[in-house]
Amino acid sequence: MHSEIIYPRKKDLETVYLKNVVTNPNIIVGDFTMYNDFVNDPRQFEKNNVLYHYPVNHDKLVIGKFCSIACGAKFLFNSANHRLTSLSTYPFPIFFAKWGLCQQDITMAWDNKGDIIIGNDVWIGYEALILAGVTIGNGAIIGARAVVTKDIPPYTIVGGVPAKTIRKRFSDEVIATLLELKWWDWPEETLQKHILDLQAGRVHGLPSHLQI
């Protein structure tokens, strides 16, 4: 299958199918999701872009199918969150040996806000930052250098620091139709037949899920 190769474009070593370069079992990526990096080797995504993602915390990065992730986009995980309920933000549990603390309590050094979940067909702009515990809905667009601190609804464009809603991409009716169709789950043959409809915005030219 074409989705199983690393480089989807000939002679383009800056763009990869992300699923085929990550090795961490706690990073789950769907088919055809792409990452472009013109600064670093895009194959080093999980090292350079997934930050503070320590195995001891068991948190996950889940990215859907057909997402487009621009250069420098980063995902900041729970271990970066110094504990706010403590009287001190200093992460004493990390230095358990120095302070005579129990090693198994190391996760008490930070607030655990949960996994990062990215839907399907999401476009994440240049150097955007996604924080732990955030869920981004299908079809959303994250502006360049936005800092996403809260969940983003499907087919919503956001930008800024912190990221705020700019507008919905489509009407509520069209959004509901797209969420029902789930075109990203279509067989490749069906998708091939309707790429031009998707590109042109012809919602009524798309088949219903019952006809696939």
Please summarize what this structure is:
This protein is 15% helix and 20% strand.
Lay out the secondary structure.
Elements: E1 15-17, E2 27-29, E3 34-36, H1 45-48, E4 50-51, E5 61-63, E6 68-69, E7 74-76, H2 96-99, E8 116-118, E9 123-124, E10 129-131, E11 135-136, E12 141-142, E13 147-148, E14 156-159, E15 164-168, H3 172-181, H4 188-200
Parallel strand pairs: 2-5, 3-6, 4-7, 5-8, 6-9, 7-10, 8-11, 9-12, 10-13, 12-14
Antiparallel strand pairs: 1-3, 14-15
Number of helices: 4
Main sheet?
7 strands, mixed
Widest beta sheet: strand line-up: 1-3-6-9-12-14-15
* CATH top-level class of the largest domain: Mainly Beta
Look up the CATH topology of the largest domain: UDP N-Acetylglucosamine Acyltransferase, domain 1
Please identify the structural class as seen in this structure: alpha/beta
SSE order in H/E notation?
A: EEEHEEEEHEEEEEEEEHH
Written description of the protein model:
It is built from four helices and 15 strands. The two termini are 20 Å apart. Helices cover 15% and strands 20% of the residues. The mean pLDDT is 93. It is α/β, with parallel strands linked by helices. A seven-stranded mixed beta sheet has the order 1-3-6-9-12-14-15, with no helix packed on it. It has a four-stranded parallel beta sheet with strand order 2-5-8-11, with no helix packed on it. The protein has a four-stranded parallel beta sheet with strand order 4-7-10-13. The chain folds into two domains: 2-169, UDP N-Acetylglucosamine Acyltransferase, domain 1 (3 Solenoid), CATH 2.160.10; 171-212, no CATH class. It is globular. A hairpin with a 4-residue loop joins β14 and β15.
